[in-house]
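Continuing the batch. This is chain 6 of the set; chains 1 through 5 are on the previous pages. Same settings as before, nothing changed between runs. Recording input and output for traceability.
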Amino acid sequence: MNKSKVKHLLSTGLLKISDVLEIVDALNMGGCAIIPTDTGYLIACDATNDVAIQNVFNIKKRKNNNPIHVCVGSVNQAYKVGKFTVKAKRLLDTYCPGAISIIVPKQEWVSDLLIANTGNIGIRIPDEPCILQICNELDKPITATSVNFAEQPPLSNFSEILNLFESNVDYLVESNKDTFLESSTVVRIIKDKIEILRKGPIPDSSIFETANNTTTYSDCREWT
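Output for chain 6:
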């Protein structure tokens, strides 16, 4: 493998702009990249490209009836992908960027291949600068699926990832972290029904308290 395809983060957690542009060009052309997040590595492709999405399923040897979540770089991008109720917006505003994945009804344009015809899409805004760089430069959602083969645990050791997946992706970005957070809390909010599908760093009690909080605030300052 061409070692220039292995990219390294700066001490800030950011990628060099030239590296961001290279990776985004590859994603725009239907390629894939392995990128670190706050909770581990993911396999990213342009989540609006069905051919690229199918390639991710193939790389992971994953069945097409198992939906794939997406990462976005901002709240505005999240709104373009999913339909957020007030409760879902509260979670997004409170915990993002962070270790939470919120499943909501999809916008009409979202590919059924991506979501396995469920009608719903899982969305994350990771607390990881390089992911935000890529999502915002691409200006599209990227797939957010762990680096592993189907039915196997996610991989977090970069050398192992490189050994198993280097021939299947265009770029690999090595994290500068020794450890990651546990997998994100996964919350589904459909018609304002809140379900915790996977426990994670954010306690269940906090999820329900935040989503159901109806407190409003008034700005009482005198403006001059």
